[in-house]
Amino acid sequence: MGARPQFVKAAPLHAALERNGITDVLVHTGQHYDFEMSQVFFDGLSLPDPDHHLGVGSGGHGAQTGQMLGRLEPVLETEQPDVVIVHGDTNSTLAAALAAVKLGLPVAHVEAGLRSRRLDMPEEVNRVVADHVSTYLFCPTQTAVDNLTAEGMRDGVVLSGDVMRDVLGASLPAAAARTSLLGELGVDPGTYAVATVHRSENTDDRERLRSIVRGLELIAKQMPVIVPLHPRTRKELGDTTIDGVRIVKPLGYVEMICLVRNARVVVTDSGGLQKEAYWLGVPCVTPRRETEWVETLHGGWNELTDADAELIAKVATRPPPETSRDETFGGRDASVTIVEHLVRSAERDTSGVR
What we know:
About 45% of the residues lie in helices and about 10% in strands. With about 350 residues, it is of the alpha/beta class. The longest helix is centred in the N-terminal third of the chain and has 19 residues, at about 60-80.
């Protein structure tokens, strides 16, 4: 693991493995290395410090992935794990999956089967390659299962549910107790927007980023807008000011859930935040052309606006949907399902029965 969403996904799996008496070796690539994007999540989610920290840091996709491969291989050779678990769709996912399969180690991909159908997205390349070299493909939704079936992958595919729903449910009491955060930010429940922008398709394209920022400025004319700013976006914005928008440092997981569950609307290009808003019953606006989480679009709880400033503001400021949400989306106890499947598979392999 190496990025914020992976720390979140690793937390419930770590707990489930521990409950089953299984040792998990945590490897942090260093992809996200500053406190706000890394250590704060280990602290807030009760993850132990990594057993190995590779210290790769930022860089171009090729250079970063190459460094990860070079530093992961000796770790895997030393540890000789029964299975290498990778999460999501980052360069850390790709590097770990490739390093493991080249050493003949089985790979378990958590959050397998997601597709945007756009190979110009680094995340799409990462997730497609990881899926095709994985022994175990743990899918969060039936849509993900169907995507893999369409690509000819059936062996090892498991509809596990979403581990992010596990960690959200476990964190809600702490988030409910953190409402002092709203006072610190000077907002009242149900009166403000939360926005995050971090995907390279939005941050690396100056025109798209400028248009999304303009959309946030339009929303800010009608309600407070709070933006926990990703380091990548901060770098691209430079000295640019966003009129009427409150910029804050990235928040820990519990603080972010507190902020989202009390918001009037969420504007985000984050897949995780789209799901969390849906589960919490908060309308969401996604400034992208597509989403891997198509279930969140049902009933109007999430809407794609691309980088259209006026449309972003229009959707964000309209009344919330009156439709119900799919309470089964994401399932329950995904981490338990994943660990139980891995244990059964290991027992079959040991007995020689398949």
